[in-house]
Amino acid sequence: MRAPLATPETDAVLEDAEARFQAGRTFYREGDYEIARRLFDEAIGALLRSPAGAFDRDRVREKCREMAKAIYDFELRALERERRKPAFPESPLEDLLALTFPVDPNVELDVPGRLKLPVTQLPLEINGEVMRYIRYFTSPRGRKPFLESLRRLGRYRPMIERVFDEEGIPRELMYLALVESGYQPRAVSRKRAAGLWQIMRLRGREYGLRRTRYYDDRLDPEKATRAAARHLRDLYERLGDWYLAMAAYNAGPGRVQRGVRRTGYADFWELSRRRVLPRQTRRYVPLVLAAIAVASAPEEFGLGPVAEDRPLEYNTIEMGAATHLLLIADILGRRLEDLRALNPALLRDIVPPGYPVHVPKGTAGFLLAALSQIPPAYRTSWRVHRVSEGETMAEIAGYYDTTSDQIAAVNGGRTGPPRSGDLLVIPVASSAGRTAGRRRARQPSDSAAWRRANSSAGS
Q1: What is the pLDDT of residue 448?
Q2: pLDDT (0 to 100) of residue 11
Q3: Residue where a domain terminates, one of 84, 101, 116
Q4: How far apart are CA 225 and CA 275, in angstroms?
Q5: Who's near 39: CB < 8 A, 6+ residues apart?
């Protein structure tokens, strides 16, 4: 007996479901999981609504099972990606400004005599308002986050000092970022300010900081520092006083200027006493002054010497084509996390064309030479594999969900077993192949072959 023919209604349902599924897969690969999930739900829904009496309902059931399994796999990968995605820590400023403790009006009388503070470019006034924050930073509760922030400052101190010197900003104002972000370049506030200097999006645009789907310049430490320095300089030129400039950094220049016009006083302490500034701004300037005082002389305040992190050192190169950070990590033998740390402004692991990506110092020449062997159109999907002792071409091909013949074809048609330390271009086709091998990323010191290959790396 001949099998019943498929009905046009069922064919239409299968085609519609497949179209929605493929569209969802496209959005999934782009990282737009919300849209992908909606399209996946619509695809399954179309199958479930297929005519109940169709002769070929078994085909619909099989398609539904197949699609559900694929969607489940996508969801697992999406969860893994979200787990690996670098976090956006919260700015500490709101919590610091919310602290409440009494002010001793007599404390300012003996503080200058007891403390031996270094000479600073910025006039440093220590009074009761400032002293209450000094007490917090040196308390058991406050000293740990304060010292952790100073430790992180070591990564950026030389860069900040250079930029501030070039822009004519007192170096002590580098500690403004201590209270704004704790020197966490990806810090975000509840008001959506971002970066080391907690710059709002509109203000960032004013100083040339761009935001796209791939990157946010406010999260780039050097770009954000340049913008913050120029903003502080503009505020000082507008208001004529560094304390008022700090107040305007927090409240906006218009708010401070209105206070000056209203009272006739261009003095922060007088404006604060008369309560013409917002409450958080009246606390903000003493908070920054306390951070400057303690950070400038931590031993004077009983914190002892601070072990700062080593400064970040890197070269900057522009990518001629969109390039995956994982491919760069493959070539350089570095961890993906290390490259993310050097490029905190990247919102995805894709470096867009023309973007100034940071790479470990001394590796730029080697990286560019290796990338030239990979067609620009494939730099977001293909991989590079460093051969380990005893690995076969078949094993490597299986690891990346490709074939030995395909690997040989893009590596000059090479034949014979690969040699330990060789770099092989891998023509990856599937998402599984693209994400394979993350755990195999090695530090340079783990591989003598890496050291030999990079001995001539350019800067």
Answers
A1: 37
A2: 81
A3: 84
A4: 31
A5: 20, 21, 23, 24, 27
